[in-house]
Amino acid sequence: MAVSLAVESIDLHYGAARALKAVSVEAKPAAITAVLGRNGVGKSSLLRAIAGVHPVAKGEVLFGGSALGKAPPYRRARLGLGYVPQGREIFPLLTVRENLQTGFAALKAGERSIPDTIFTLFPVLKDMLSRRGGDLSGGQQQQLAIGRALVTRPKVLILDEPTEGIQPSIIKDIGRALQFLRDELGMTILLVEQYLDFCRELADSIYIMDRGEIVHSGAASELDKPEIRRHLMV
Ligand SMILES: Nc1ncnc2c1ncn2[C@@H]1O[C@H](COP(=O)(O)OP(=O)(O)OP(=O)(O)O)[C@@H](O)[C@H]1O
């Protein structure tokens, strides 16, 4: 069954600096939700808070309606939260297969296998199983990072700028993969992005973030409105 993810009025600090101010976001079950904003507005901080890699000072993250509290990242992964971090964080000296196997840590012994879906979505990973992660192109590494998150069979997938620095043909593959995960597997997807066209095509709903706050939420078609674009201009 598809699971919802909700962030309720969270604050996040780096020392004295407040990076998130009462941020609330809802990712509906089996839908793609995109959070857009310029560099440095707090998008990665939002995902770090959801993944549990940075503590929140206030507020709550709800996974399928249950508060995650202070649960550490590995427990969130076991519950079914997949996280594709910014910069991909591939292990350059491990092979593609070994990078995928790092996802096994979140699985019980009997479940430790690499799902075929990953190779259906990203056939290049199958061809490169024995190559080192560091030898892959940026786009291939992004596919590997998504594949690694899928190894844990997540119910909710959060992705930090999946199109960053990636060539258009691979961006299309990633978009198709996310649509498949939503439509065929009922996965709930929350992504943060700066690339408007990608979100307009893919997202069911969007949020706009500016200086640590959500300043708008609505349908992806609203991305063309001038008052919304104003928040996204550099
Ligand atoms: N580890 C950190 N220590 C101190 N300040 C930080 C840290 N990480 C982020 N910040 C600051 O918090 C704010 C939000 O950063 P964050 O990375 O969440 O934004 P972002 O929207 O994801 O930007 P980008 O697209 O550049 O990653 C910025 O002002 C940033 O400088």
Automatic annotation (TrEMBL):
SMART domains: AAA
MF-aspect GO terms: ATP binding
Keyword annotations from UniProtKB, A to Z: Amino-acid transport, ATP-binding, Nucleotide-binding, Transport
Assigned protein family: Belongs to the ABC transporter superfamily.
CDD domains hit by this protein: ABC_TM1139_LivF_branched
InterPro entries: AAA+_ATPase, ABC_transporter-like_ATP-bd, ABC_transptr_urea_ATP-bd_UrtE, BCAA_Transport_ATP-bd_LivF, P-loop_NTPase
Residue stretches making up the ABC transporter domain: 5-234
Protein's UniProt name: High-affinity branched-chain amino acid transport ATP-binding protein LivF
Recorded superkingdom: Bacteria
